Amino acid sequence: MTNKKQRLASVDALRGFDMFWIIGGEALFAPLLALTGWSLFAFGHEQMQHSQWHGFRFYDLIFPLFIFLSGVTLGIANKSLQGLPLENRWPVYRKAIKRLLILIGLGIVYNHGWGSGIPADLSEIRYASVLARIGFAWFFAAMIVWHFGPRAQYAIAAAILLGYWLLQVGFGPLTPADSVNSWLDQCCLPGITYLNRPYDPEGLLSTLPSIVNALVGVFAGRWLRQKAGQHTNILVGLAAGGLACLLVGLLWHRVYPINKELWTGSFVLITSACSLLLLALFYLLVDRWQWRYFNYFFAVIGCNAILVYLGTSLVNWQYSSNSLFGGIAAALPDAAGTLVIACGVLLLQWLVLRWLYRREIFISP
């Protein structure tokens, strides 16, 4: 296996780890807490809930980590379109636009966004979505990477964060009803918002700083490429970058709160820090120490991450798990039965993904 493939394997494994919590991993802590009473599981269950407004929990990391990983693949590819004639660039643009439109469309499908039925009422569709934000963040990061050098990319990332900060704090208080995000979504976002809030957590303005999460991934991917085979240098670089982002993010939090709903700049830095540190950890486990079974378990999930995400909305895995394991669960105490069903949900999805993985069927936009 070449170094490039090994790096991609660690990225797939980390992507699988990220999606593991989406497909049902978050549901394990509550029954484990009920069975054992251990405070560790109480902490884990708390971390599996999104922060209500200001603050940060582990579950807030899942979304930006996926965006970060999309940037890592851009950095590893190291593609540049600078100096190429339009006829050579256009096929790349067309493919990028197609990917963006597919993700926007799949996001609407995920949201069950057909309004009150067919024919669809366009004003009742939720166009903003997690998949759309992933698409926009990747698309604009790709355009920046393809048309600017590394120094300019760093400058653009810094300008986005500083400009977004000045815009938010200059407009008014960072509250759900009074933020500039709410004003812009009510003014310009078509359709409805999530739970009919004044703002949409995947709305227009907060998509802008998410581009920086992808760009930090680009910087990490470029570092992996440049230092290929130099394990110590790779680990030190990723860890140093993560700790630097963590320090700056925590200091910035004092005047600019960490907030996932508004995707504040401090939230970008904290999530980028965690993403870099996790990538360092997975690089150590998968590429340096060659933990084959660890890698395989998560890579099976990570190689079809978009399909996994769609499946959580379109397939009732809970019903399937109850059908297969409900008899066992009913014979056990409530907490143990709940744990059996939760493990069944994970097992069924993993087996389907393993079937695809073994046949090298990888579905991506």
Automatic annotation (TrEMBL):
<protein>
    <submittedName>
        <fullName>Transmembrane glucosamine N-acetyltransferase NagX</fullName>
        <ecNumber>2.3.1.3</ecNumber>
    </submittedName>
</protein>
<dbReference type="Pfam" id="PF07786">
    <property type="entry name" value="HGSNAT_cat"/>
</dbReference>
<feature type="transmembrane region" description="Helical">
    <location>
        <begin position="155"/>
        <end position="174"/>
    </location>
</feature>
<feature type="transmembrane region" description="Helical">
    <location>
        <begin position="61"/>
        <end position="79"/>
    </location>
</feature>
<feature type="transmembrane region" description="Helical">
    <location>
        <begin position="264"/>
        <end position="286"/>
    </location>
</feature>
<keyword id="KW-1133">Transmembrane helix</keyword>
<feature type="transmembrane region" description="Helical">
    <location>
        <begin position="130"/>
        <end position="148"/>
    </location>
</feature>
<feature type="transmembrane region" description="Helical">
    <location>
        <begin position="100"/>
        <end position="118"/>
    </location>
</feature>
<feature type="transmembrane region" description="Helical">
    <location>
        <begin position="293"/>
        <end position="315"/>
    </location>
</feature>
<dbReference type="InterPro" id="IPR012429">
    <property type="entry name" value="HGSNAT_cat"/>
</dbReference>
<feature type="transmembrane region" description="Helical">
    <location>
        <begin position="233"/>
        <end position="252"/>
    </location>
</feature>
<keyword id="KW-0472">Membrane</keyword>
<dbReference type="GO" id="GO:0047932">
    <property type="term" value="F:glucosamine N-acetyltransferase activity"/>
</dbReference>
<feature type="transmembrane region" description="Helical">
    <location>
        <begin position="203"/>
        <end position="221"/>
    </location>
</feature>
<feature type="transmembrane region" description="Helical">
    <location>
        <begin position="335"/>
        <end position="357"/>
    </location>
</feature>
<keyword id="KW-0812">Transmembrane</keyword>
<feature type="transmembrane region" description="Helical">
    <location>
        <begin position="20"/>
        <end position="41"/>
    </location>
</feature>
<feature type="domain" description="Heparan-alpha-glucosaminide N-acetyltransferase catalytic">
    <location>
        <begin position="7"/>
        <end position="231"/>
    </location>
</feature>
<keyword id="KW-0012">Acyltransferase</keyword>
<keyword id="KW-0808">Transferase</keyword>
